[in-house]
Amino acid sequence: MDNDVRGVAAPTTHAASGTSAATHESRPRRTLELLVIVVSAVAIAILLRTFVVASYSIPSGSMEPTLQIGDRILVDKLSYDLHGVGHADIVVFATPRDEYCAGPPVANLVKRVIGLPGETISLSAGQVYIDGTLLSEPWLPAATRMETFPGPSANPFGLTRPYKIPAGDVYVMGDNRTDSCDSRFWGPIAESTIVGKVDLRIWPHSKLHLF
């Protein structure tokens, strides 16, 4: 009887030891796999943020009512590698060197593209014209569609007179036309300084919006 028990018990003990050893060996492997997953996820996130998308917070009211202070937006950095800049695009761009508006300095600004390279932009009765044709601006509240002011008269790019946008530049304005420091003050921006196109408002969640 004792021999039978020992004969059965011995393989059981050996199997348990084998399972324990296998478990011990698999722990470093699982740790390595987890580390690879985490590193890969971080690398992908860095690549996406560097080359594909980025998020920004709105610091001022220059784009109201479209974008409010504190809104967070998602910017597509590849958009203009696939197609040109268009009228009404909302863009993030490097702050121009000649920007002199009040407030703390920031690396980037957000405005809406109003005029494209080679176009002549002008004002009449507070409304924007492109090459002599009234620009439809449905993004502006109806009550403010005739409130665009020309900017400083001493500036060649102020709209006290028609202004032809140079090649490679775009003319930008904030949607808050009565309280926006933009191309009317410091001129058009080079397309090369555009970080990307605003595609989505991601915060607050209740105001999620695709542009």
Structural features, described:
With 211 residues, the chain is an alpha+beta fold. The chain has two domains: 51 residues; 108 residues, Umud Fragment, subunit A, CATH 2.10.109. It contains three helices and twelve strands, in the order αββαβββββββαβββ. Strands 1, 2, 3, 4, 9, 10, 11 and 12 form an eight-stranded antiparallel beta sheet that branches. Strands 7-6-5-8 form a four-stranded antiparallel beta sheet, with no helix packed on it. The protein is elongated, with a radius of gyration of 29 Å. The termini are far apart. The N terminus is likely disordered.
Write the layout of secondary structure elements.
Blueprint: H1 2-52, E1 53-57, E2 72-76, H2 79-82, E3 90-94, E4 108-115, E5 120-124, E6 127-130, E7 133-134, E8 163-164, E9 169-173, H3 183-186, E10 189-190, E11 194-203, E12 209-210
Antiparallel strand pairs: 1-2, 2-11, 3-4, 3-11, 4-9, 5-6, 5-8, 6-7, 9-10, 11-12
Summarize this entry quickly:
28% of the residues lie in helices and 26% in strands.
What's the CATH topology label of the largest domain? Umud Fragment, subunit A
Low-confidence stretches: 1-16
Give me the CATH architecture of the largest domain, please: Ribbon
Report strand %. Answer: 25-35%
Instruction: Give the integer mean of the pLDDT values.
Output: 85
The dominant shape is: elongated
Instruction: Give the number of helices.
Output: 3
Instruction: Give the class-level CATH name of the largest domain.
Output: Mainly Beta
Helicity, as a percent range: 25-40%
Q: What's the β-strand tally?
A: 12
The major sheet is characterized as:
8 strands, antiparallel
Order of helices and strands: HEEHEEEEEEEHEEE
- Radius of gyration, CA atoms, in whole angstroms: 29 Å
The number of domains is 2
Ends apart, CA distance between termini: 83 Å
Q: Helix/strand/pairing class, anyone?
A: alpha+beta
Give the CATH H-level superfamily of the largest domain. Umud Fragment, subunit A
